[in-house]
Amino acid sequence: MPNESLSATSEVTLELAWLEHGRGLQPPAYQTLSAAGMDLQAAITEPILLFPMQRRAIPCGFILAIPPGFEAQIRPRSGLAMKHGVSVPNAPGTIDADYRGELQVILINFGSEPFEITRGMRIAQMVIAPVVKARWQIQASATDLTPTQRGTGGFGSTGH
Predict the structure, then answer these.
(1) Phi-psi region at 115: left, alpha or beta (left = phi > 0; alpha = psi -120 to 50)
(2) Structural domains of the chain in order of their starting residue, each with its CATH number
């Protein structure tokens, strides 16, 4: 049986400012104690019909301030993907710490039927993650790179 008493080892504080069309909705929320992602809601005033293979940016009704050193990743909700074929085509979408525009979710309908999005519907999930910056160490040639046992083995080289 999973130990639900354990929680994340660290927390980060996010600032949220509601836009007029988002007022009355709940802030993004974890649905269980061990959930990695917070559900995002559609902040729309009228239902939107998303037709098969149609993409649409759906507003969430707030502006987010993420502290430096973190990002927000926007990911599909597995239930919408499984039941209706609705997903996030650029998953994970990235919200950088210096972005101060409205959070919106790009949705696509991969299903065969139109899908109706309504106000307050949970449309995606947001995961807050630390950002690690990379720096380059340029080598003179490929033979100067740190060797590995795998080497240049590509697609399917590690077995089935």
Answers:
(1) beta
(2) 15-132 (2.70.40.10)
Contact at 8 Å (CB) between 19 and 62? Answer: yes
> How many other C-beta atoms are found inside a 10 Å radius of the C-beta of residue 159?
4
- Residue 53 predicted with pLDDT over 50: yes
Q: Which residues of 7-34 are buried (b: 16+ CB within 10 A; e: fewer)?
A: eeeeeeebeeeeeebbeebeebeeeeee
Residue 89 and residue 127: Cα distance in Å, rounded?
A: 16
Q: How many CB atoms lie within 10 A of CB 129?
A: 13
Give pTM, 2 decimals: 0.85
pLDDT at 2 over 60: no
- Cα separation values, 140 from 4, 7, 55, 61, 145, Å: 51, 46, 44, 50, 9
C-alpha torsion sign, points 13, 14, 20, 22: negative
Task: Say how far apart CA 147 and CA 150 lie, in whole Å.
Answer: 9
Per-residue model confidence as pLDDT tens digits over 95-145: 999 999 999 999 999 999 999 999 999 999 999 999 999 999 999 999 999
